[in-house]
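Standup notes
- HV: blocked on the assembly model, inputs below
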Amino acid sequence: MKLFFLFVLITITLLIAVYLYRVLRGPTVFDRVLGLNGISTKAIILLVVIGTVYERVDMFVDISTGYALLNLIGSLAIARYLEEWKELAHDCE
Amino acid sequence: MTVNEIAEWARFVLSPVAIASIVVGLMFLFVAAIGVLRLPDVYTRSHAVSLTDSLGAFFVLGGLALYQGLSTNAVKILIVLILLYLLNPVITHATVRSALRSGLKPWSREDA
């Protein structure tokens, strides 16, 4: 069973690399924000799987809840900022 | 039968279901990654990030909650799942709306 969860961990980490490519390469700044959102979703899942592997789900679930809330605040702040500063969005293309 | 015995039994019965659910969820996450890699612009990519990713997270986290059996941990994982379902659409909506308001044109077939 532990082997299966390790397989899940490795697969999700490889998927994070795909999103990281989109963050680094993405033509506009909005692509980067979306890529970061995807990475944070994967990180939440990853934390819960790590908790299952180490049999400490109660602790790791709290960490992932905090991560989700921080991700919400950060993404909303970036989105509002880009909405206000229109030139900035086009400079990054 | 005590509560602990029932919990152990539920865990034993549910673990194959949990594994199947996690595998299905990984498949959805894989499709979402392909979408992020291949789709042409922000508006189309937001579908991959928001919709498919949420469904994959539902199956993976639901499978992990089933693997925990009847316990507090399963409820906690489900709370994270509900939180994810509340927050993910908000973030995607805000990002795409800021993209539209800053004047980014949606992709059309003529651009290709």
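- HV (later): unblocked. Residues 29 and 92 of chain A are 6 Å apart (CA to CA). The first helix of chain A runs from residue 2 to 25.
- Next: hand off to the docking folks.
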